[in-house]
Amino acid sequence: PGNPQPRMFRLSNDKAVINRYGFNSHGHEAVKIRLRDRLRRYLFHEMKLHPVTAASMIASSPDGASLSDALGINRSLREGRLLGINLGKNKWSDPESADDYVKGIKTLGSYADVLIINVSSPNTPGLRGLQRKGVFEKLLKKVVDARDELSGPRPVLLVKIAPDLSDEELDDIADAAVYSNVDGVIIANTSTSRPLSLKSGSHLTGEAGGLSGPPIKNLSLRALRKIYKRTDGKITLIGCGGIDNAEDALEYAKAGATLVQLYTSFGYDGVGKAREIKDGLVKLLKDKSWSDVIGDEGN
Fold it and tell me: Would you say residue 125 has pLDDT above 80?
């Protein structure tokens, strides 16, 4: 059920959000049913198969993804797009256990192009403790092993970390990520900090939860730069946190991000934000490509 409502607060003067959702979800089986039904609708409406034929094909497949792979259909069911599934942890689980993640990988991994292991939400008690060096290394080994045991094409495996970590903690995470053969790191999740620069009133900024949006950009960039330098560009890094325009996105690329993600800016500016940022990047990059500027903060 997640945390009691209200649990999301807009800081409009900062184009920011504080949330404490607490991983509200109907659970693995409900999501699996939705994904299988999504594939059934695709076979019926897009491939124009007879409903009985589509249902029979789904029923004969141990999971929907093996069927889509066999048919040569992208798991997102949209050409040029990826389907990502975020895996969290129940608040009543053993704080240091990887079991929830492993179960999520086994249940849903074959439906995804990308799996995201979230160890950094501030709204699940003890969750961020999974980022401690020894615990984090064990977690990554277990989730990578679980992913590698999946049949068919294996989804990309990413781990999402907090922006509030110390330099030593970031070094530990970078080393563990490279050693474990995880595919990438998302930097970063929401922050527990409340920067002095916030313009919104204390009745909002005092709410518990994770802060997202422009006020945490510098925190995320700091963590990104640290991990990029530590890994020497050997692992894919996804920048996230306060990206509101093309200039922000380009700053993340120069700090070492191969990809960037948007969340809060969608809430304020709508889904056209991605198109706006890409158009802006074309003008900023001029005769260069995105890949030319990754990690190139000197220019």
Answer: no
